Amino acid sequence: MSSVRQDAIKAIACAKHQLNRVDFKKTHVKDLFGSMVFNEEVQKARLPKPAFKALQQTVKLGVPLDPSAADAIASAMKDWAIERGATHYTHLFQPMTGITAEKHDSFITPNGDGGALAEFSGKELIKGEPDASSFPSGGLRATFEARGYTAWDPTSPAYIMENPNGSTLVIPTAFLSWTGEALDKKTPLLRSMEALSTQAMRILKIFGNNTARKVFTTVGAEQEYFLIDKNFYYGRPDLITCGRTLFGAPPPKGQELEDQYFGSIPDRVLACMSECEAELFKLGVPVKTRHNEVAPSQYEIAPIFENSNLATDHQNLIMEVMRKIADHYGLVCLLHEKPFAGINGSGKHNNWSMSTDTGENLLNPGDNPHDNAQFLIFCAAVIRAVAKYSEILRLSIASAHNDHRLGANEAPPAIISIFLGEQLNDVFEQIDKGGAKSSKQGGIFETGVSVLPPLPKEAGDRNRTSPFAFTGNKFEFRAVGSSANIAGANTVLNTIVAESLDYIATKLEADVKAGKDLNKAIQELLPPIIKESKKVVFNGNGYSEEWHAEAEKRGLPNLKNTVEVLPVVTRKDTTELFAKYKVYSAKELESRFNILAEAYVKTLDIEAKTALMMARSMILPAALRYQKEVGESIAAAKAAGAATPAGVESFGTLVSAINDLQLSINKLEKAHGHHADGDAYAHAKHMRADVFPALNNLRTAADKLETLVADDLWPLPTYREMLFIK
Ligand code: ADP
Ligand code: MG
Predict the structure, then answer these.
(1) What residues have CB less than 8 Å from 373, skipping those under 6 apart?
(2) How far apart are CA 701 and CA 619, in angstroms?
(3) What are the phi and psi torsion angles at 543 (to 5°)?
(4) Which of 62, 116, 192, 437 is positioned for an S-S bond with 494, CB 3.0–4.6 A?
(5) How far apart, in Å, are the Cα atoms of 191 and each of 137, 182, 373?
(6) 353 lines ligand 1 (CB under 6 A)
(7) Backbone angles phi, psi at 87, to 5 degrees
(8) Once rounded to an integer, what is the mean pLDDT over residues 119-141?
(9) Does residue 369 have its Cβ closer than 6 Å to ligand 1?
């Protein structure tokens, strides 16, 4: 057997991992939680009263921070951090690469006498100036105009990231260009949250709510991921370079027995999960659930929801911590949307709702949704938004990675639709027909077993195949990719719902001002909204062929891949929408278009180069060696006077498969070598039309060979090994 695979299996079989690294008996989870966060409790204990008050006003109500408070906050933060072993601080930001970025500065300043002071001023807390030229700007700035600023986000608390040798105080920030354009994902998200709050508050006012002062969008994102042994990972250049396997024949057993989902979790994996959770608890990330997912070696982690900004920062932390901790157990955490072909990929279910600062969930239907006018308004606003802006929503989840997943009978299709569930669907149908009189009720679940307690039953069943589902008191956007920064999808969601709320508030305000009864105004307002939007409501199986046909009949867009959806970014209606709510300027959208197109091109370019390298230097040589072996064996048999029809037949099959591989290499080489004229988008189109099919073609040829070549010559860890040897 090839030494890489042999060594990997041997290493795994003999490995002794130190599994018990955290002891919850010694440290109670509740003491661990938030222990590394400069949270409200710490702020209260350590800040002068006026500074504390000012900061809380900013966090809770969005009031701009009084700059005079900054010095006091910085100084308290520094002392607190140094006591906990911090030597450096960093402004953490979310550039448009999709991952987070950080540059560390030490607290040390020479004091002039050969000694040094630990210093951290309000100015340093509020503003940083990383060299912005090496981050994608999509044409927003030329490289010679390198100025970019990081601006402290006081609404997301600073925390300490522990490293083996010293710790770092991490300050969440927004990242902007010298001219004020957003160069990141946080700034537009914060803008969209404000836009939604403004519009939602208008609706609440109409309903006579005078206590709420702000509306927050809330998010709880469930993260799917794979864990595989590091020894295999190192044997796969495609996993290392591209995050996904470009080759690999299907294993004899995949996920067809459905014995994975919620199955018992292997010790090593569970130990890894527990340490991740312990680390995340310290950082104040409220992780709640863990379980096996559908595919072999696939798992999920989910936190309790928080406001979208914090939830986004915490989601990024979850990904970072999981990657880091997996290594302690000899594992690699794969966050790619489709690391393995033929089995489920990974997504991120983005649970989303709106809540007042007083804690009222605006998408809570109560027991009688038909009678809950305020809920119906907020819910109808979401339905209208998704119907009207489904293409922009589709855009928010587009990437070369996620293209492999959407619509592949494992994840929601690229067609955006809404699942409402039986109860709500019924209520909205009644409204559509003239007025809602009743709500279907849940009741008691019949188990047929007398010793089991009676179980309350929901008013409707669930649906896993819908990209956008109402799940009781929130919507779940299920098409977000597993490696994506959730800021993008939430920025879009918040903005399109803000527009809907604006539309509704404007109508209702005018009606009420004209002396119309509010209930009557609502009764007149809802039916046309439902009529207009109901094409997007679908409660059936979203994976089915019939749905694709039906969706086409309804005129719903089906933008199958990133290249098809990209032009939506700079379309007039998109630009107007985002400009109206001050979330993205036209210039910022133009830059996103360029960045998305470039990212698509680069992803496929790297995949093509990796595939060619592996095919030429690993797969073809193995196949040729085997061809020689079989050829020699046939010749030897012949020389000895024996006929070997079996040998001759398999030799023929092998030779032709090797020829196919060579032809596929040539094809991909040609497609990849072709230079498309024009801008990044023209290149992206070429990549999708020519390089993508050539890559798939090469894969088919190589995977065929994997089933023919002697196992001991095959150079790459196989799916069977990577997914099942734990
Ligand atoms: P599921 O049945 O899909 O597992 P859960 O009720 O366990 O649903 O919740 C899944 C995620 O939804 C969790 O992260 C949870 O915190 C989040 N969630 C619950 N309520 C809300 C809400 N009002 N807003 C946003 N997310 C929410
Ligand atoms: Mg869910």
Answers:
(1) 207, 518, 519, 522
(2) 10
(3) -85, -10
(4) 192
(5) 19, 10, 28
(6) yes
(7) -110, -20
(8) 83
(9) no
